[in-house]
Amino acid sequence: MAGSARVADGQALTPDGSAPAPGGSRPVAKRGPWRTGLLLASPAIAVFALLFIAPLFMLVYNSFRTQAGAPTLHNYTRFLGDSFYRDVLWHTLWIGALTTLGCLVVGYPFAVYLRGRSPRARNYLSLVLLSPLLISMVTRAYGWLVLLGPKGPIADGFQAMGLEAPKMLYNDTAVVIGMVHVMLAYMVLPLMGSLDRIDPALTPAAKGLGASGWTCFWRITVPLSLPGMLAGSLIVFSLTVSSFVTPAILGGPTVKLMPYFVYTEATSNLNWPYAAAIGFVLIVVTTILTAVYARLLRGRGGKEVFA
Amino acid sequence: MTAGTDTVGTESAPTEADPAARAGSTRGRLVLKGIHKSLGGKEVVRGIDLTMEPGEFLTLLGPSGCGKSTTLNMVAGHLLPDSGAVEVDGRDITRLPANRRSMGMVFQSYALFPHMTVAENIAFGLRMRKVGAARRSRRAAEFLELVGLDGMGERYPRQLSGGQRQRTALARALIVEPDLLLLDEPFSNLDAQLRVRLREEVGALQRRVGTTTILVTHDQDEALAVSDRIAVMAEGAIHQLDVPETVYLRPATDFVAQFVGEVNVLDGTAAGAAADGHRCRIGGTHLVTATPVGTAPGDGESVRLYVRPEAVRVRALPEAVSGKGGPATTSAPAAAEPGLPGTVEATRFLGTRVRCVVATAAGRVEATLPFGAEVPGLGEEVICAWQAQHASLTARP
Predict the structure, then answer these.
(1) Can you list the domains of chain B with their CATH numbers?
(2) Which end of chain A is more exposed for a tag (fewer CB within 10 A), N or C?
(3) Are residues A216 and A280 in the same domain?
(4) A65 contact partners, CB below 8 Å, separation of at least 6
(5) CB contact under 8 A, A205 and B111
(6) Are B233 and B201 in contact (CB under 8 A)?
(7) Per-residue pLDDT tens digits for A181-213
(8) Smallest Cβ distance to B114: which of A212, A213, A304?
(9) Cα(A209)–Cα(B124) distance, rounded to whole angstroms?
(10) Closest among A78, A74, A52, A80 to A62, alpha carbons compared
(11) What SS3 class is residue B86?
C-alpha cells in the first residue's frame, strides 16, 4: 500500500518538477503529495508494524536471551548441536515436502479438470474443495482417525479382500493424508488462476504444429502454470511445517514435529526463549527452502511466465 | 518485405486468377464435400462444398456466427464434422487428428507461446518433427528474415508489437511447409493502419511462397484486397463463391449485396433486354439498365436492382425538363443514358469523396461523387444514372 502510494506520487510529480517554477516554492510542492501518501498509508503501516513486524522482532529478541533475560547464543547451539532436534527439523521438512507433493499430484489434475467446466460446475466443485476448511480442524482430524483406524472402513475393506490391513494411523502416512485433505484448496486455487490465464488457443496452436496431447501438456500447459504451482507449493509447505493440530492427532506419539516442541517448550517447560529459537529456526529454514524452490521453478524463460 | 515497397498485395485481384501457375505450387488442393456441423444443439455449418486449387488464396467472409471459423477449424482438425469429408490432394483427412495434418494456422490472438523466444516459437513445428537443433535454428533464422524480423529471435513475444507478433505467428505457421495456411481473423487485433499494411504483406508473402491459404474474416475490405476468390457465408452456408470483382459488382443474393460494401437497393419491374444489359422500370416510368445475375427475368416480372454508390453518377437535370417534371428518358441529354430523377437531399463531405443523397421515386439513392466532381446544391433536381454493367438485377426475394 505504501509502495503504490509512492508510485502515484512520482507520476504526479513529473509535470510539477518540469514546470519552470521559482526554486523556493518547489520543495514544498514536492513534499506535499508525498506526505499525503504517507498519511493515507499510515493506518496500514501501523497495523502491519504492530501485528507482523513487532511480534517477529520480539521472537528473535527473546530467542537470544536466557530465561533470566541475559543475552546468549545457547538456545541455538542447543538446538543445532542436538541430533534429536536436527532430526525433528528434517522430519518436519520431509512431511512438508510430502504434503506439497501430494497436493500437487492430486490438485493438478483437479485444476485442469475444473478449467474445462462451466462456471456453474466450477462453483460447486470449488465449494467441495473448500469444504474441509469449513470444519473444525479437530473434528476433521478425528474423522480421519476413524477412517484410518484398525477398525475403520478402510481396514475392513482390506480384510474383506482377505488382506492384512497396513498400519495407517500414528505415522507419516496418516499425517500426510490428513494434511493433503486440508491443504488441497490452497494448491488448487492458485493453480486454477494460473491455468485460466493461459490463452485457450495455445493448445490447438501446438497441436496444429504437430504436438501430441501429451507434448502440449508438458511443453505448454505445465510451464505456463508454474506460477500457480509455485504459489500453491509455497503456501502448502509453509502452512504444513507450522501446523500443530493435525500432526498431533494423526501422528500420535511417533510423529513429533517442530510446532509440537515449540508448544511443549512454551507451555510445559516454560522455556519461552528456547521455544522462540525453535520457531525462528523453522522460519529461517522455510524461507531459505522456498527461495531455492522458487529459483529452481523459474529457471529459463521463467521471467516471461512470471511477468 | 517492407510495407509500401511491395505493391503486389494492393492490386485488386485480376479476373479469373490462375494461382497455381503464378506460384508454381502443385500441393494443397483442398476439397470440402457436404460439410455439416452442429455445436451446442445448433447447426452452424449446413452443407459446405468447396474446391480450392493449389496456391489459391480464398477468403471465408461473413458476419460472426456464420460458421466460417467452425469451417476453418474442421479443415485444421480441431473440430470433427458431423458429416461430409475434408480432402487434401486427394487424401481424405476428415478423421485425421490436428497434430497429424499439415496445416499452418494463425490465430486471432496469435497464440504465441509466451515462455518461448521468438526463434523457439517459430521453430516449434520443426522441433515436433524431430528436426535437429542446428537445422532448426538455421531455418528459424531464414523465416525470421522472410517476415522481416531479423535479429529479433531472442526476444520474447511480450516484447514484440502487435504487428511483430502477427509476423512471428505467420513464420511459425509457414516453417513447417504446410499443405494449407489457415488464417483465423489474423488482423482484427491490430489498429486500422497496421491492419491494411499487414494484410498487404501477408498477401504478397502468400504469393511468394505459394501456399494454399484460407482467410477467415468479417472485414469485406480485407477480403476484397487479398483474395483470389471470396466465399461469402451466412448462417452456415456459402451464398456466393467467386472472384472479388464479381462478388462486389454482381452479388448473387440479397445478403451478399448488403454485406459486401454499401449498396443501393431498388425495386422495379423487368422491361426487356437491351444492347448492354436488361432494361428495368422503376417507380412505374423511369427506365434504367442493369445486368441480370443468373437467368434474365421475363417482362413485367418483379425485380430488385443493386447498384453501388460509387457507380451512380449524378448530373443536373436540364432546366426545361425539370420545369415540366416529365419522365427523364424523354429529355434530349438524358436519352443516351437512362436514369432516375430525384432531388438532392443531402451532401456529406467524407474527405476523399463527397457522398450525395438523392430522393427519388424509388426511395433514397446514395451516390459517391468522384474526386473533383461538381457537387450539386441541396434541393437541386438531378438525374442518377449508371452503366448497365455496374448494376445487378435479381428476381425480387
Answers:
(1) 8-102+178-256 (3.40.50.300), 263-395 (2.40.50.140)
(2) C
(3) yes
(4) A71, A72, A273
(5) yes
(6) no
(7) 999 999 999 999 999 999 999 999 999 999 999
(8) A304
(9) 7
(10) A74
(11) strand
